[in-house]
Amino acid sequence: MCKHISMLCLLAVLGVNSTWADEPEQILDSPFDIENCGAELYLAPEFPDQKVAEKPLSKEETQRATQLIRGLADTDTAGTGYAPTSNATAFLPVPVTERQNGGILPMRKTTRSESLAQLVEMGPRVLPLLLENLSNTTPTKFSISHEGHMGGMSFGYELPWNPLSRIETKILDGEKESARDHHSRGDPVGSSYTVKVGDLCFVAIGQIVGRNYRAVRYQMTMLYMINSPTHDERLLRQTRELWSGETPAVSVLKSLLTDYRTRATKLHVKCKPSLAYYSTDPGGTASYFQCESSIRLLYYYPKIACPLIAQRLRELDIRAGIIGSEEWHVREETNKVNTPEFVQDVAWSADPEISAEIDRIIRTSNDTAIVVGCVEGTSCGDATLFNTRCREYFRRIPQLKFDPNGIDNDVLLRIAQGDQPKERDALLALFRKNACGDRRRMLELALSRAPFPGSEKLPSGQRSTDD
To answer: Which candidate among 61, 242, 251, 265 keeps its CA 20 to 30 Å from the CA of 208?
Structure first.
């Protein structure tokens, strides 16, 4: 599934002709204080010099990228980064990274713009064309409207950033806010708005660099926020200033490595467990940057990223811990990352070292969320690998504590939707044999959402010791 972009050694190496690369490696003189939780962000030790070649787009690639940007005008439905009723996030080339982050119920998976996804797949080298087209006012076929007396639509100014990045802090005036907090302008829009090509280029830039740039998003209650570089000159200027340069591959690599090194001294100081990974918690902010950068490093810079990620997986504490328990706090503070999310966000990689570590975690961890994360992270990739990991997970189910939050559901739904009847039936039968009653009821729920001929006849199995 993964289409890694090969970085050939042609023109430049890290540290040459780049605004980012010219900056000293020490990002801040002291840790950045997040006032809401009283904890601090800091950078983990830097890695040995990481060199990457800078290969500009060829004439043919430039023509293809230009055509794809023109194709954005055909967008006619909401998608990741431009959905008025959903705040779902995803790295488009890796569908398994999609997560729902609030919106209007019932929340549905967003559609995928192929033109946008292919631009993101092209990676950092396409940034100059995207930045050039940020001011492109060509209308798409997607318009949003807001009717009724509650809520409304307004323009915003929202540029998420990493407070440990010297460049972002300098350009964005060093505002002391969480990197995912919103600072909306609130200019009125009216009753309708047509998304522009420049707006989708803004989304594409955020996809590539690991920033949640959203042209359209939902805000409680019944508010639609619009961040448009075609409307807001400041948004246009600062986005270009942040990511322009003669060496985009070098600049993005440096930024992603800074994100990957972002840590918090304490994960949960004043926050309740249920809010542990929201933006009010610096530990959640640090975890967010680590996970998002890991995905992009593996996709765009696999030769650099794979050894780093494999080593990180080897060092993880994978012991079981109920959310909010002392064991859970110790584990998460040791790992300095949301462990289930991290393993899920890297499990799709086909790198042999990473695959071996993910398989080891599935075999040895006694934490349900971590094991499920490893399995679910493979669900949009190699079907054989996914089935193998499901089989190992289902074999171990009696040893794993039942999670009432339904974390098995997506895995079960993927199996139920599989196109290999014999493998599907065997896996579901194994699940029913080893799972407790509550887990089996979750299976029935998944089957009700994706029934197939004969699903009602699968053996129910025996109740196991985790009932």
So the answer is: 265
The pTM (predicted TM-score) of the whole model is 0.84
Angle between helices 114-122 and 59-71 (to 10 degrees): 150
Residue 167 CA to residue 158 CA, distance in Å, equals 17
Q: Which amino acid, residue 295? A: I
Query: pLDDT at position 33, please?
Result: 37
Domain-wise residue ranges, the chain: 55-245, 301-457
- The label of the residue with tokens 């919106």 reads 103
Burial string for 326-350 (b: 16+ CB within 10 Å, else e) reads: eebbebbeebbbbbbbbbbbbbbbb
Q: Who wins on pLDDT, 24 or 293?
A: 293
First to last CA, the chain: 37
Reference 21, options 56, 51, 58, 55; nearest CA is 51
Judged by DSSP in three states, 27 sits in coil
CA distance 174 to 165: 10
Strand order in the sheet with 152-155: 187-188, 152-155, 223-226, 216-219
Between 149 and 305, the more confident residue is 305
Dist. CA 101–CA 420, nearest whole Å: 32
Q: How far is CA 9 from the centre of its chain?
A: 29
The burial of 67, by beta-carbon neighbours within 10 Å (0-12 exposed, 13-18 middle, 19 or more buried), is given as exposed
The pair phi, psi for residue 263, each rounded to 5°, is -135, 165
CA dihedral 99, 104, 106, 110 (to 10 degrees): -50
